[in-house]
Design brief:
The complex is a heterodimer. Chain A is mainly alpha-helical. Chain A is built from 18 helices and six strands. Classes of the chains: A mainly alpha, B alpha+beta.
């Protein structure tokens, strides 16, 4: 009720004294909120469950007809169908998914970033039930439907997606599948799903050493920041020269901190050795066979460090405590380039769990927090994999689990 | 001492220009000392000109040299470079002079040629630092300074100067077989976690679990405070030193780094150390695992000194290598008198492997001793400041690293750091008394890094200042150009790590400082960069017992990297038997062991898989196994840390290493209950209002409002994060949508069919407006929403309150409909999901 009181105070503040009659409208808000709070404690029937599913999936209230249809499905013991019905709403794509994905596409992890090819590609993959474990490796990008009169996809700017957003294009219908190799000029084997989208390149391949791409991919798709995967016992032979082994004259810092992340990260981030983002041209750069100069900057920080010769990567985390991330035994754990690294990451149990956890949090409005939740997530992971990594399945499972009793 | 006085000069005079020519050649070969001697001699040769007092010599006088002239140029080089410096009564001359008590009279002043003969028996001109004279004095034999090392270094410099350039290049290090030592015993972690569980675990569980467990809100590896003791035990092993509990990271983190102490860091670290000591007491000392394939062991100092540093020091006038390791004096080992030794004050610590860690203090010479810089640099008009440094951070500003100055407003020169940039102040005829405008390296280049760097500032009269980092010119042009040094001040003091006024503190490690009275060329600078810094040894790990190659070793170039670690570099397979060939030896999975145990961290050669074959092997250089270097943590110190190597395979000896599977993560604790409902976020609010009112989000009016309030609307679903500003934004957006709706006759007609906006509106007569709004925005027949009746009544009451006398007419009707609409779509029932 305190929030309700706040609500009233806010509107009080908003309206001036001469608008006194309008202030009374606040009472409606107060009353409505009070009733909601009261009602939320009541047992939920099919209509209430349908309303919540729709609210959580689409972010907007259902129409009366949709609500009725969903309630019917729930009553008939088909709550999954009700959830899929909610996904017919354009808002699921234009609002829910867009805001779900946008923070992954920039370093600030802000949701207030423009629509871009990274976000659009994920939305398209969800819509078309593209197996989501290809999100880090596919030669895929979603662009605007040509019938909409939008600018063509450009490797040099975000105009297409800016226009889609400003024109309020329905992302449920306005996106069509294409390939990065067709629209960006990247060789097909140099494409790696969202990793090689323009937005990701602009955010994570720009300047620096390309380690940002690895770190943010880890955060966004394996739900782990480096602190959670650091392992000081991996061999440091692949750590590049730019990492000081005695920062500020104290090698303890390296041996107890730096090495924990770099010993695993550097051998994997080597996969991005041919990529860069040209800020002037505004586009991704790929130099097949030639390591980007950013991989050899500050080489005198530790001359006997590793000098990157190519884009060969190795997953050192298949040994040690990080084998708990659940790597796919059918993959080699090493390879060349971003595409195979993306496949390695997306084939891990941690990747599948991460998608479940993200969706669970988005739909249930909380992280999995008890035994029942964890069991549900595990069951969703199994369902996700058995459905060939359909993200809609994940949203439906989570929405049904949290639709209320 | 005056080189231009005494009978030696008189005797030389008789040799005429021939001697002068010899001296000229020597001057080119061996640097400034011969040059000065030559100048002094030349003055003498002029006949009648008064003698010139050499200002840099400060050796107690001895009886004038009265013996025969040097027999040749080498004797002359010995005389002016070494003999002149050691003949004093407070140095070697006390015993090694004619009539002295020592058997070898290399400091005798009756016959320089005999002294030369004796000296040849105690010097090594090829490896001056290996001279018997140097080793003897370095070992404590009558050093005239407080540091034996400093005496040894100075003697080395003098002998090097005697040897001239011959000592510089192409020197071969003679590898010497180290003594065979067997790998020691140690305490190894038991398989079972019970010792840990009863000692250390309760402490870390209580005080470290806020972060160091997976279930933490802010999880931080390693998870040694995990709720599962086996998980914690697996993670804690790298943080505990059973052989030396005080050196455990768990202890040092509290004691020295003050990392999240729970009360008093000293007491907490004692508690932790006591617990680890108790735990160690429960673990028996064991010999190294007999299954391991191990090399013989040796300490750092059992290695062969790698003194191959071909530094270009021909023009050095002050040199600090910080080798002493203790005390309050950093010696000037340039051999150029007077020695401008630095007095250490404030927060400064010695660094293992040579160096000073400056943490706010400074190391400063006297103004008297510093004056030699003034004298010698003014005589050439150019100089170089050379330093091997590791800035502690790249956040410090106005941080003076090396300075010859008199306060913050007056200086001759200064090398400073400003975050990622180096600053070179240098007083000349083209700058002010503070050496400004200073030359600053480009910010974008980020030349300064918090890593060991070789930094050189040169000044010459034409180009002015130049900065070189790690042997490379930063190409920052000196706008002031060169100039003359006529305005230099000889009352300043030379200082390292600060300004003389102690208010320009630089923090970091300085491992070498050299001042040259010439502008070094880029080639010379690069030579000094390539020469490196610090003590280095070739460590030979004997593997003869493992393979069928006589006197075979794995050689590492090892240095003490800093106070806390060793650098192992350039692993090479080599046999000291020049006739031996390796055949074909496979070396795989090499690990570096310390004090009986393989270290867990820094094992860069685990992935090594190399075949040593005859075709790649040479008797001189062996065969390099890897170009990668690695840092291994220091445990007990360089004198006692006993290193060895283990192999997964060397030759036919194999040992399989199988890593234990990590324990399964424990079940995390349940999160506290949170609200079952949450807030619609900004774009959902916008979309819902658009849906309720049929006004598209792209409508210019509502979009303008939305863009204004977008970041004011809820961005998190957390209902506990709801604040008043959110509702203000919701209300503004609701009004915008409803205003646009009601102003659009088509849309309002479609949404409110039958309602006449030009007619009178009374309380109880608004159903045509209220009911569609409830249906679209709030829903009906939902127990989780307010009842339609209650909402209807409230909205109807609103009409009554907003319409004077409960009746609206004219434009007021539309206005009130807007208000009713805004109340219907912008309330808690639509904001909560």
């Amino acid at each position: 009720m305190e929030h309700a009181m706040n609500t009233m105070n806010i509107l009080d503040a908003k309206r001036s004294a001469r608008q006194q009659p309008c202030v009374r409208a606040v009472s409606v808000l107060l009353a409505a909120l009070a009733m909601v709070v009261t009602a939320s404690g009541a047992a939920a029937g099919p209509r209430e469950q349908a309303k919540r599913i729709h609210d959580r999936i689409a972010g907007v209230p259902p129409s009366a007809a949709t609500l009725d249809a969903m309630a019917t499905d729930i009553t008939a013991g088909r709550p999954q169908d009700a959830a899929l019905l909610a996904m017919d709403a354009s808002a699921f794509y234009t609002v829910t998914l867009k805001n779900f994905v946008t923070p992954w596409t920039n370093r600030d992890q802000t949701v207030f970033a423009p629509l871009n090819d990274y976000t659009a590609t994920v939305i398209g993959m969800v819509r078309d039930d593209v197996p989501f474990n290809t999100v880090l490796s596919a030669d895929l990008v979603y662009v605007g439907n040509s019938s909409l009169g939008l600018p063509a996809y450009s490797v040099a700017n975000n105009d297409l997606y800016d226009q889609m957003e400003s024109q309020g294009i329905d992302l449920k219908t306005g996106l069509v599948s294409s390939t990065q190799s067709a629209v960006t000029g990247l060789p097909p084997n140099a494409t790696a799903g969202v990793i090689t989208t323009r937005a990701a390149a602009q955010a994570f391949f720009v300047a620096g050493t390309n380690r940002a791409m690895f770190r943010f991919t880890l955060m966004n798709h394996l739900c782990r920041d480096l602190e959670q995967v650091q392992d000081t016992t991996r061999p440091p032979d692949r750590i590049r020269q730019d990492v000081a082994r005695s920062p500020g004259g104290d090698s303890r810092i390296f041996l107890n901190s730096c090495i924990g992340c770099h010993s695993g990260m550097d051998p994997m981030a080597q996969a991005f050795a041919y990529y860069n983002f040209d800020s002037t041209a505004g586009q991704i750069v790929y130099t097949a066979g030639t390591v980007q100069p950013k991989y050899t900057i500050n080489m005198d920080n530790f001359k006997p460090g590793f000098v990157t010769p190519d884009d060969h990567w190795d997953n050192r985390w298949r040994q040690g405590p990080n084998q708990l991330l659940g790597w796919d035994a059918n993959l080699a754990g090493s390879g060349n380039g971003a595409k195979s690294l993306g496949a390695e990451l997306a084939a891990s149990d941690a990747f599948a769990h991460c998608q479940e956890e993200k969706v669970f949090k988005n739909v249930c409005l909380r992280a999995p927090g008890n035994a029942a939740d964890r069991s549900q997530v595990n069951s969703m992971v199994a369902s996700f994999k058995s459905s060939n990594y359909k993200m809609k399945q994940v949203f439906a499972d989570a929405a049904v689990y949290c639709m209320g009793d | 001492m005056n080189l231009a006085t005494g009978s030696s000069l008189d005797s030389m005079k008789t040799r005429g220009t021939g001697v002068r020519a010899v001296f000229g050649a020597l001057a080119q070969r061996t640097g400034w000392l011969p040059v000065l001697a030559f100048l002094a001699l030349a003055a003498g040769c002029g006949g009648g000109a008064s003698t010139v007092v050499n200002p840099i010599v400060d050796v107690p006088a001895v009886p004038d040299y009265i013996g025969p002239a040097p027999a040749n140029a080498d004797v002359q080089a010995f005389k002016i470079n070494l003999w002149q410096n050691i003949k004093a009564n407070n140095r070697c001359g006390a015993c090694h002079a004619a009539g002295g008590t020592a058997p070898i009279l290399f400091a005798r002043n009756d016959d320089i040629n005999l002294a030369y003969q004796d000296a040849n028996g105690v010097v090594n001109l090829t490896q001056p630092d290996q001279s018997r004279m140097v080793i003897k004095v370095g070992g404590g034999h009558n050093c005239w300074l407080s540091s034996n090392q400093a005496c040894a270094d100075i003697l080395t410099t003098w002998i090097t100067n005697w040897a001239g350039a011959a000592a510089g290049g192409g020197r071969q290090i003679q590898l010497v077989a180290p003594p065979d030592k067997t790998v020691g015993s140690t305490r190894n972690f038991p398989v079972d976690s019970s010792a840990f569980a009863s000692t250390v675990y309760p402490i870390v569980r209580q005080y470290c679990s806020r972060c160091h467990q997976a279930a933490s809100q802010t999880p931080q590896q390693p998870y040694f405070a995990s709720s599962d003791v086996d998980t914690a035990y697996a993670a804690v092993k790298t943080k505990i030193n059973l052989d030396n509990p005080a050196q455990s990271r768990l202890v040092l983190r509290l004691r020295e780094e003050f990392h999240n102490c729970w009360s008093d860091c000293a007491a907490n670290s004692d508690t932790m150390e006591a617990a680890i000591t108790t735990m160690a007491g429960m673990v028996p000392v064991t010999q190294i695992d007999p299954a391991l394939v191990v090399s013989k062991a040796l300490t750092l100092y059992d290695g062969t000194v790698a003194s191959g540093g071909n530094r270009f020091d021909n023009n050095v006038i002050a040199l600090y290598e910080f080798k002493t390791g203790n005390g309050s004096t950093a010696f000037d080992t340039s051999g150029v008198e007077p020695a401008a030794n630095l007095t250490i004050s404030g927060n400064v610590e010695w660094v293992g492997g040579w160096g000073l860690n400056i943490k706010g203090g400074k190391a400063q010479a006297t103004t008297t001793a510093s004056k030699k810089l003034y004298d010698m640099i003014k005589s050439t008009g150019e100089y170089s400041i050379e330093a091997w440094i590791a800035p502690a951070n790249v956040a410090q500003e106005n941080a003076y690293i090396v300075s010859y100055s008199g306060g913050t407003m007056a200086r001759n020169f200064t090398l400073a750091q400003t975050m990622y940039q180096y600053d070179a102040f240098g007083r000349s005829s083209n700058t002010d008394a503070n050496g400004q405008p200073e030359l600053i390296t480009a910010a974008a280049d980020r030349d300064a890094q918090a890593a060991l760097q070789h930094v050189v500032v040169t000044f010459d009269p034409v180009n002015g200042r130049r900065v070189y980092v790690n042997g490379v010119n930063t190409n920052d042009a000196d706008a002031q150009k060169g100039g003359t040094l006529g305005d230099w001040d000889d009352t300043f003091a030379f200082v390292v790590g600060n300004e003389v006024s102690s208010n320009r503190s630089w923090t970091g490690v300085v491992k070498l400082v050299a001042i040259h009275n010439r502008a070094l060329t880029e080639e010379q600078i690069n030579q000094n960069f390539q020469a490196g810094v610090g003590e280095r040894y070739f460590m030979l790990f004997n593997v003869s017992q493992l393979i069928n190659v006589p006197q075979s070793y794995i050689e590492f170039e090892v240095s003490q990297y800093d106070s806390y670690g060793y650098l192992f570099n350039k692993p090479t397979f080599i046999s000291l038997d020049p006739n031996a060939m390796p055949g074909n030896i496979t070396i795989k999975g090499m690990r570096i062991g310390v004090n009986g145990a393989e270290g867990k961290v820094g094992q860069a050669y685990i992935p090594l898989n190399k075949s040593v074959v005859d075709a790649q092997y040479t008797a001189l250089d062996g065969e390099r196994l890897s170009n990668i270097g690695t840092v291994i943590g220091l445990e007990k110190g360089p004198a006692t840390d006993l290193f060895f190597l283990t192999f997964e395979q060397i030759g036919t000896n194999t040992h399989s290493v199988i890593e234990a599977a990590p324990p399964a993560p424990p079940t995390p604790a349940d999160n506290p209950p949170v609200s079952d409902v949450g807030l619609h976020t900004f774009e959902e609010v916008n979309a819902a209002m658009s849906q309720a009112t049929t006004v598209p989000t792209t409508n210019a009016s509502v979009d303008a409002t939305y863009q204004t309030v977008k970041q004011q609307l809820p961005t998190s679903v957390n209902i506990e994060g709801f604040v008043s500003a959110h509702q203000v934004g919701v209300a503004q957006l609701a009004i915008s949508y409803c205003s646009t709706l009601v102003n659009d006759t088509t849309k309002r007609t479609a949404l409110f069919p039958g309602f006449d906006f030009s007619a009178t509106l009374t309380s109880g007569g608004g159903d045509l407006v209220i009911n569609p709004l409830i249906s679209r925005a709030i829903g009906t027949g939902l127990a989780s929403q307010p009842s339609a009746t209650a909402v209807h009544d409230e909205l109807d009451n609103l009409i009554g309150r907003l319409c004077p006398g409960s009746t609206c007419t004219g434009t007021r009707t539309a206005t009130v409909v807007k208000a009713v609409c805004a109340a219907a779509i912008g309330n808690g029932a639509t904001l909560i999901k």
